[in-house]
Inverse folding.
């Protein structure tokens, strides 16, 4: 299940990068905000998960449109400024979360969805449900990208933005859509994770690190590699602590990613930026 | 020439004022000033790395290395602080160089990512030897430099930051500094002129790391307590924010940026939670409106005024 969440969020990040050539460092924060938004729909407003999650996706999608228009579009050509912009976004989002949710009030676990299925004794039903939902969603997404006109446009822009615009593709609109999708996915992931684990302001940076790790493993610019990267990272994340004492695992895992970054920045599937 | 003399007097004047400050200011304000001095050292050393073309998102880690090294040596081994502090700086410098060896191969975005990871990694290292490092909860009861009063600390850090700034300034405005900046502009051009551009970058990481380590060690022996969270990702990010908002193009940029932005939370008694919004707002203002940062504000206003005036003239003419 962890892998699927990583894939979900990393995919959004990678899509935004492919199409807009911007590293949205704030993506981890968006994931966290999505989680809190989902929580707010779920618990205080009392809407069930089946309503809150799509609502969260919608909200975060709109937010994604806003970000693209206001924050990223002016700086598309200037990588450094875009990075700075993302950093600023992180601060704003994290502070917003700190203020509204409260730094002390950590982990608000929404209801565990024990109502779905009770499969085997060893498999918790809610995690299975999350896995299922994510898989279905990813499958839909992949089909969408490959079959629809929007999807084709996305791929075209990712490949060669100028040529795409010469062919009549409205880059701005597609960028907006991609950013919205990325944010929606991240938001959904946040909401889903909130139902299985706890929500906390700290998860933003943790997730950011994981996403970047996945993207590095997969290779910057490669969408297909995200699957492998996410699966790999999820596996490592789950199994690692068994082999290495927790204390060593944290710095070790980070060091490993750095190592890969240094040795092979293109990752396993990527192309040179 | 005239400008140099004026700004020279200005700086001397500021130094004089700062030296006399303890006569007017109470202990709390001295405390704030000390913190600002320390963070100015941090931001300026970040700039040292920045001008070699590397945007580091893990600078606070160097501060952590210096702080923990000096603190642990002084507390657990009882070594004198005047010895452990430079050691802290040295440790941070060595780590900076060691890290720089592989990292300097990485271009822009990759370097930033790697430095982010590195910064995170350092904060997790405290868990490796909890009896020494105090684990995530922090390391308490670190020997302090002086006694109760803030005044000797104030002068100590004033001298330290002035010394740091002097050294960094001379470095930047020397032949070496030009070389570093040229590497940032185009490493290809630089290396075709025979400049060892990787070596320059590693050097920058080392120097930047050194002063960050000293700042960290100083902080440890002032506060008496250090915890990993003060040196994590967000503090590193804020350092970068201070640098960029103040103005990355000029030496005074980080100084001004830190002095202004760092104090914002302290100026908002009761509302400190909202402070990062203002700091981020300053950053956005710099991004959208004043690319040169706060330091470039006068010039930017002048250019706006001029543009308005030109537009008026054009209207009258037409």
């Amino acid at each position: 299940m962890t892998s699927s969440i990583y894939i979900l969020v990393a995919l959004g990040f990678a899509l935004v990068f492919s199409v807009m050539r911007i590293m949205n460092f704030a993506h981890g924060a968006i994931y966290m905000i999505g989680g809190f938004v989902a929580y707010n729909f779920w618990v205080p407003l009392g809407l069930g998960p089946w309503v809150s999650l799509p609502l969260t996706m919608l909200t975060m999608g709109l937010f994604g449109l806003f970000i693209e228009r206001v924050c990223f579009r002016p700086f598309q050509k200037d990588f450094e400024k875009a990075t700075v912009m993302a950093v600023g976004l992180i601060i704003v989002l994290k502070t917003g979360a700190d203020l509204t949710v409260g730094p002390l009030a950590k982990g608000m676990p929404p209801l565990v969805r024990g109502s779905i299925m009770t499969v085997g004794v060893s498999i918790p039903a809610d995690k299975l449900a999350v896995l299922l939902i994510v898989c279905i969603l990813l499958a839909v997404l992949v089909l969408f990208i490959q079959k629809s006109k929007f999807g084709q446009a996305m791929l075209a822009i990712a490949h060669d933005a100028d040529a795409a615009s010469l062919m009549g593709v409205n880059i701005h609109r597609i960028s907006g859509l991609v950013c919205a999708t990325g944010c929606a996915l991240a938001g959904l992931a946040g909401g889903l994770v909130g139902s299985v684990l706890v929500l906390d302001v700290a998860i933003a940076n943790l997730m950011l690190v994981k996403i970047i790790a996945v993207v590095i493993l997969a290779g910057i610019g490669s969408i297909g590699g995200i699957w492998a990267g996410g699966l790999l990272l999820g596996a490592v994340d789950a199994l690692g602590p068994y082999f290495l004492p927790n204390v060593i695992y944290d710095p070790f895992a980070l060091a490993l990613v750095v190592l890969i970054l240094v040795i092979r920045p293109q990752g396993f599937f990527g192309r040179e930026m | 020439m005239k400008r140099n003399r004026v700004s020279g007097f200005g700086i001397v004047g500021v130094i004089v004022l700062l030296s006399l400050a303890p006569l007017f200011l109470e202990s709390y304000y001295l405390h704030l000033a000390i913190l600002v001095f320390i963070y100015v050292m941090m931001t300026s050393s970040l700039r040292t790395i920045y001008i070699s073309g590397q945007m580091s998102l893990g600078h606070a880690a160097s501060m952590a290395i210096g702080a923990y090294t000096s603190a642990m040596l002084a507390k657990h081994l009882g070594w004198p602080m005047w010895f452990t502090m430079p050691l802290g700086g040295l440790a941070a410098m060595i780590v900076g160089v060691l890290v720089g060896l592989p990292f300097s191969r990485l271009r822009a975005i990759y370097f930033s990512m790697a430095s982010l990871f590195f910064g995170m990694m350092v904060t997790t290292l405290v868990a490796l030897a909890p009896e020494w490092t105090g684990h995530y909860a922090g390391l308490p009861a670190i020997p302090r430099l002086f006694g109760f009063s803030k005044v000797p600390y104030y002068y100590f850090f004033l001298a330290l930051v002035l010394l740091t700034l002097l050294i960094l300034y001379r470095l930047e405005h020397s032949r070496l500094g030009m070389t570093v900046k040229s590497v940032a502009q185009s490493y290809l051009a630089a290396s075709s002129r025979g400049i060892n551009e990787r070596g320059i970058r590693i050097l920058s990481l080392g120097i930047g790391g050194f002063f960050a380590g000293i700042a960290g060690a100083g902080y440890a022996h002032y506060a008496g307590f250090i915890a990993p969270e003060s040196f994590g990702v967000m503090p590193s990010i804020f350092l970068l924010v201070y640098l960029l908002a103040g103005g990355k193009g000029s030496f005074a940029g980080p100084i001004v940026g830190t002095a202004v932005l760092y104090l914002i939370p302290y100026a908002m008694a009761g509302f400190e939670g909202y402070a990062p919004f203002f700091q981020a707002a300053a950053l956005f203002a710099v991004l959208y409106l004043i690319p040169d940062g706060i330091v470039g504000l006068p010039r930017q206003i002048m250019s706006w005024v001029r543009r308005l005036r030109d537009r008026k003239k054009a209207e009258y003419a037409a």
About this structure: The longest helix of chain A spans residues 171-196. Residues 2-204 of chain A form one domain.
